[in-house]
Amino acid sequence: MNENDTILIIDDEIQIRRLLEISLTSNGYKTIFASDGKEGLTSAATHNPSAIILDLGLPDIDGLELLVKLREWFNKPIIVLTVRNSEDDIIYALDKGANDYLTKPFRSGELLARVRTAIRLNTEKIDSPILEFGSLSIDLINHVVRKNNEIVKLTATEFSLLSLLAKNQGRVLTHQFLLREIWGYSYYEQTQYLRVFIAQLRKKIEENPSKPELLITESGIGYRFGN
Amino acid sequence: MNENDTILIIDDEIQIRRLLEISLTSNGYKTIFASDGKEGLTSAATHNPSAIILDLGLPDIDGLELLVKLREWFNKPIIVLTVRNSEDDIIYALDKGANDYLTKPFRSGELLARVRTAIRLNTEKIDSPILEFGSLSIDLINHVVRKNNEIVKLTATEFSLLSLLAKNQGRVLTHQFLLREIWGYSYYEQTQYLRVFIAQLRKKIEENPSKPELLITESGIGYRFGN
DNA sequence: AAATCTTTATAAAATCTTTATACATTCTAT
DNA sequence: ATAGAATGTATAAAGATTTTATAAAGATTT
């Protein structure tokens, strides 16, 4: 379930960090910590966590500013956890892209439930468990791809790439986006990786790999799955 | 924006209903009310609201039961709004599919922000801005252009030019402006580029490329999309 | 040792730029 | 008012550049 979910905590209070670490790790999450805004930004970029818990009172920049900066590219849940209880802050944070807003002191069971909810809402509309496209089926939960009911053997990277494209069927995903999502934040220039893996996928899932009907090239932009 | 969003309020307290009605309608939402669980279920089914605000203390059945029943088929946001403040209730409600949980008394600005957030999170990945012009559609986010529902393959530059013109439908954009926006600041004299690309676009999207109806020439000035 | 991922090399394809040419429109001098 | 010049436009096509597909070698991981 949440075995691979990493939560980034951006907060400089030692006690809060301890508390969060205990309750999150004992519920199967991995945790990373950042104690100021700058560290938070780079950590989000390098680790690509499944969610961020963000304090607003940071030593270097205001948490709401950081929220806005993160939202320029970070599309996973951001849960604000802060002592600031003014309605203005709450409204501002939610309207700037926060998924939830909790005030300290907080109850750790509730926080956990809200983390679960945020992650669930973020993934459920994408992850219908089995995607079907003609004779191709992609089982996202069991990591199994079938073509004409026969299992196609894909490597981990091939599967990630295929499922990311398939989940966004009909949409052009840019080279940058694909590279950042699958290889990591700093790999956005390694376009060649994509070409190699797209070619491998086409060999495995296309009826006629030289005339692809599923994995479509958008020259100069990226790739698209299906129409 | 939220002009067509209808919110169903399932709550039997008159004062809460009045308060919610005022703040929601004055922010552009339509409201429907149900005062017990049974009415709530049928109302959700018949009106298919964009979100539900659910009180847990209902006269006929427990709100958490109703939540579970609703979630069997209702996939839009459900925001629980209740006096019940026990952590168990909060965790249970969130894990059973509530999108948010607010306790009474509540601040109406915050409630509105949470409603906005819930609706945004529910829809943001599903629909993207699509420009429609007769049989032509331009999906700006997914970078897909369709004519009579068939995908028109455009190059990156062609797409930029078309979407820039279409976003400014009816407005004349000068040669200089178009060249600077798409090719770069110093390209403002390369009017010939525009002619070449406009001609290519007309071949791809006009019914009759020699009598353009979408990409209109404004001689000596620039080009215009549509009327 | 086998499988997978990364990197390099190269040919092919697609796209963009530039040139050439024909057509259309506006302006000007008679 | 009209011939002719000047300006603006459409389009095809050649040339240059960028992007892509693919195989295969090297590195890394399992």
Notes on the protein architecture:
The structure is a homodimer of 227-residue chains. Chain A has 227 residues and is α/β, with parallel strands linked by helices. Chain A has eight helices and twelve strands. In chain A, β6 (130-133) and β7 form a beta hairpin. The A-B interface holds A 87, 90-91, 94-95, 98-100, 107, 109-110, 112-114, 116-117, 121-122, 125-126, 170-172, 218-221, 224, 227 and B 87, 90-91, 94-95, 98-100, 107, 109-110, 112-114, 116-117, 121-122, 125-126, 141-144, 151, 155-156, 159. Chain A binds a DNA duplex (30 and 30 nucleotides) through α6 and α8.
What's the quick description here?
The structure is a homodimer of 227-residue chains. With 227 residues, chain A is of the alpha/beta class. Chain A is 41% helix and 22% strand.
